User: What shape does this take?
Amino acid sequence: MTRMHKENNLSKNQQIIFDLIDKSPEPLKAYTILYNVQKKGINAPPQVYRALDKLVEIGKIHKIESKNAFVACKNSDCEISKATAFSICESCEVVDEISDVKLSKYLSSFNHKKGMKFKRFNLEFFGLCKKCK
Amino acid sequence: MTRMHKENNLSKNQQIIFDLIDKSPEPLKAYTILYNVQKKGINAPPQVYRALDKLVEIGKIHKIESKNAFVACKNSDCEISKATAFSICESCEVVDEISDVKLSKYLSSFNHKKGMKFKRFNLEFFGLCKKCK
DNA sequence: TTACATACTGTTATATTATAACAATTCTAA
DNA sequence: TTAGAATTGTTATAATATAACAGTATGTAA
Ligand SMILES: [Zn+2]
Ligand SMILES: [Zn+2]
Ligand SMILES: [Zn+2]
Ligand SMILES: [Zn+2]
Assistant: This one.
């Protein structure tokens, strides 16, 4: 069997799937990923979902919840901060990860009245991008 | 056929499904809703999803994207503002709609560097609620 | 009233997204 | 080198959501 690619902490399947997502200009869905990696020997949904779960867990990719799709992280500190924000065009469906220190700090320090302490948040903005409006 | 319940703007199926969600202490999933309204003559997924779509559209309920589940709106202005925020306990899964004017204003006036103007946002906070920590 | 448009309903089938379960292999660290 | 942890491969199935089409109810305006 091929050696695992531990020099960068990703296993073989994780690396294949990360590379695909990272190269993609748009969010990729799990089954789109599956179709695109079958030539690399990844044949079944669980193989894809397991790699996706791990990549999300370590902050290399994020799930766009409203689209059931995945994008590569464009920031350096998502793994640590667990603070994600995206802008989503409702027309062309372009998604951008927002990296705004003030926004991130504001939300990370937000305290709920009911005494809940937050560990993580996900924010999705919707509108029309420059091109589409 | 029964008269539509237009006195409050909801159709028969919409009213049945809204009442169920509104009474529920926790977010409800579409198929849980389906099982619970079959005695009222709603038999198939499209009937549920159509009512859910409409109720979301008019702001009577919200979808918790990370859970594929629906809650009744607890605010008065969600229909207008299209600004939703939730706190979600990762242990007991309790979900609360956050109604914080400052937060809502801050996010509603947030402008993306790339020139996108937002019409709507959804924010989900995760952590441990008072009871669970 | 009639006729039309719009919204809603009922139904069957199917598409899409995600996980359970289990056996085998590979990696890591002691 | 060996045991535990992580990863992989595989089959089957669960859970979530929509397509398509025919029919019914409602509001509006001639
Ligand atoms: Zn990121
Ligand atoms: Zn666009
Ligand atoms: Zn609301
Ligand atoms: Zn809790």
